[in-house]
User: Fold this.
Amino acid sequence: MVKWFQVLLCFLKLNHKWRFL
Assistant:
């Protein structure tokens, strides 16, 4: 479960970076 959460967080961070770009 923790891994899933981490993956989701990583995805969200990536999405944020992409949006920023």
